[in-house]
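Working notes for the structural subgroup meeting. M.R. asked for a predicted model of this chain before we commit to crystallization trials. I am recording the input and output together here so anyone reviewing the notebook later can reproduce the run.

Input as submitted:
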Amino acid sequence: MEPITPTRYQLENVATGRIFPDEGWTLEDPQGGEPALVRAVYEKRQLEVKDMACGIYRFADWLPVSRMLRGSASPVTYKSTNLSEHLGLKNLWITFNGYFPERGAAMTSCSFKETEAYAVGGRLDPACGKVLVVASAGNTARAFAKVCSENQIPLLLCVPEDNLDALWFERSLNDCVKLIAAQSGGDYFDAIHLSNLALRSSRFLAEGGAKNIARRDGMGTTFLSATTTIGRIPDYYFQAVGSGTGAIAAWEANLRLIADGRFGSHTARLMVSQNAPFLPMHHAWRAGSRTMLPYDDNLARTHVEEIDAKVLSNRKPPYSIVGGMYDAVKATRGDVLYATNDEARQAAALFERLEGVDIHSAPAVAVATLLKTVANGEVERDAVIMLNITGGGEGLFKSGKSLSYLKPAHVFGLEPDADEVVRIAESLF
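Returned structure, recorded in token form:
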């Protein structure tokens, strides 16, 4: 870990505009009020992009960090030739987050969740003496486990038992990383509940999810990569979403790039997508509702079991909160789309054939919705389109390797006893 000059910034309450200092791990406005995200306001208005050797920290001007962790890689943006030609598009740009050496992409967790983990870890003060707690449906857990293991950051992961196959690693992890799970049949929401119970202990620190400015601004580096590579803000932004945090992050990065003054004055239309039949944000958006619609817990779990892209299964996304998904899609004149498993599988096969690398089921959903919007004439053929491939190259990376899997220290029922969760979690560290 390398100390760097801490990035200078303040926080802004998105609802009220109140500016106030970050106390180190501030997740919301301490003065309270209407539920709202807080946003980083960086002292440096114009972004100075550093060398690729700096990994994600090449965008450190707009990351709330005070140190550079080892092992990071930057998102890579390139202009598509084959997929673009197939679709009849003139300006399709792919931002690839994963393992694709041919294009210079070197995220060995094969997921853009690495951008979150390196930013959150760079914000975290090691002197705080607490164990970071992260709930995940899979990819986030793998990324945080890799980053925390390589940088000796104590971490407690909470993951659904059905998603444990996502916790693969090139080598065994450092003992500072521990895992507890919600039993088979549970989903991401059950993992979040488990993490909230563990956080009743003062020994643990909530990573914060969408409320953590480091998580959002880390994910926002995908949009910074695209814009600085293209030389202008894209017209459209395609991404599959579970919580929608990455799309919120793209919107916030877009606003900073407008203030920068060198890349345009418009916002990219957020074209985000979900995996049918799990469509809570799609249904709320199409109903014109700022609040999420009722969704029976058992039906939601059944739908989660049916979808290929398990990482898109957040039942409680930051949709309604001020500055959240509803505001982001509305402000950018975007849309919340969807794709079925079959559509996504076909899109993944097409992408691999044309672009030369395998992709995860979540970005395959985004590719599928891009195919449909183009076929329906809903995007201009000469528009500058950013396609955020949020995970890929896993098949390529795993080829010929003997992998290690992280096993849970304890598997809890779907209605766990709070005291037992705290007792067992504390005993792991």
